[in-house]
Design goal:
Lon_proteolytic, Lon proteolytic domain-containing protein, Ribosomal Protein S5, domain 2, PDZ_sf, 22 strands, six-stranded mixed sheet, 2 domains, Ribsml_uS5_D2-typ_fold_subgr, Pdz3 Domain
Length: about 350
């Protein structure tokens, strides 16, 4: 006698199939989150492909050794590229990854193309800043002209300074500087507290005039800002070319500058050591905060670096995230970073400032 399959088994099988389909669909549904994971690192003293990352001409250069690694963050998600639940689960289990709601990372209504354009512009700016800061650190005079590209709405500069103004001089409280070198304007504003009135001499439509502007707080750094975006025209006394494909953002500036300095100074600055680091840089050599420090430290450690340079403002980001055996060195300026690398190269590391140093 043939046994008949009970009706409830058929229904149960259909239910299991439905649940499985629903689970697969849920895993595949795109979600508005961003996953940041350790990305590749690049030794700025070597080549990427068949091109040197940093090429210097017009001055005597010297052999280098070891590594000065710039670090990156691999980012998944964001506008036009939402991640799946499966990717979120994998990132959570993998460790060294940060999962953040998309709206906390990107402005509303921004497109993927705009994000890529902004990252490319930041990388280009970081390279120009690194070149100017490195040469100034080595004692070169780096001529520059600062033109205003944009004036921020709601600042005291709004309606006073204008797009196209060329800044010639800035004064405050009896102190004054001609802004004809790459770091001059930034170095001056670094010493001016917020809400102080500065007098800015600008050239507008061929005529010079003085404009009084009240400064604002500089978020994440010392001094103040005027509420303008500048377009610097820099004349480098030494030709420097930085070639690094498919990498965006401003955070490689400090390592680029160190790579330039190493090539232009006798002796291998690293002493053959594997050193990594991060930090945006201004033309006056000030190192500024960046994002993704835990992921960058993990990537650097995986690629052999045992020393990591980090901006002072990012010290809190290192808490509980420093790989075992890695020494983190706190820096504020390019001068600090250079001194740290030279000390590491000589094996004199005990006195180097860390994020726990008061």
């Amino acid at each position: 006698m043939e046994e008949k399959r009970p009706w409830y088994r058929k229904k149960s099988a259909l239910g299991v199939a439905a649940v499985a389909v629903a689970a697969i669909a849920a895993v595949a549904v795109p979600l508005p989150y961003v996953i940041e994971s350790p990305g590749p690192t690049f030794n700025v003293l070597e080549k990427q492909g068949d091109k040197k990352v940093i090429s210097v001409s017009g001055a005597t250069t010297y052999p280098t050794s070891g590594s000065l690694r710039m670090v990156t963050v691999s980012m998944r998600g964001g506008p036009g590229a939402n991640v799946s639940l499966a990717e979120l689960v994998a990132a959570y289990l993998r460790g060294h990854s940060q999962i953040t709601p998309e709206e906390e990372v990107f402005p509303k209504n921004v497109t993927r193309e705009q994000i890529e354009q902004a990252a490319a512009a930041q990388m280009q700016g970081s390279q120009q800043n690194a070149e100017a800061a490195a040469l100034a650190e080595l004692g070169y005079k780096v001529p520059a002209i600062f033109e205003i590209m944009h004036v921020a709405k709601g600042t005291d500069a709004d309606g006073k300074l204008k797009k196209g103004d060329k800044i010639l001089r800035i004064s405050e409280g009896g102190n004054s500087v001609t802004t004809d070198t790459a770091g001059s304007l930034f170095a001056f504003l670094k010493k001016v507290p917020p809400k102080k009135v500065v007098t800015v001499k600008v050239r507008r439509a061929g005529r010079d005039q003085d404009v009084a502007v009240r400064t604002s707080k500089a978020e994440g750094r010392r001094g103040s800002v005027m509420g303008v975006v500048l377009k610097p025209d820099v004349k480098l006394p030494v030709k420097v070319n930085i070639a690094l494909a498919d990498v965006g953002g401003p955070s490689a500036g400090t390592m680029f500058a160190l790579g330039i300095i190493d090539q232009l100074t006798p002796g291998a600055m690293t002493g053959g050591k594997q050193i990594a680091g991060t930090g945006a840089i201004r033309m006056d050599g000030e190192v500024e905060a960046i994002s993704g420090v835990p992921q960058k430290m993990a990537g650097a450690y995986a690629d052999g670096a045992r020393y990591f340079l980090v901006p002072r403002q990012n010290c809190a980001d290192t808490n509980g995230a420093i790989p075992k055996g890695m020494r983190v060195v706190r820096i504020d300026t390019l001068t600090d970073a250079r001194a740290a690398v030279e000390s590491i190269g000589k094996g004199k590391v005990d006195a180097l400032p860390t994020c726990s140093t008061k």
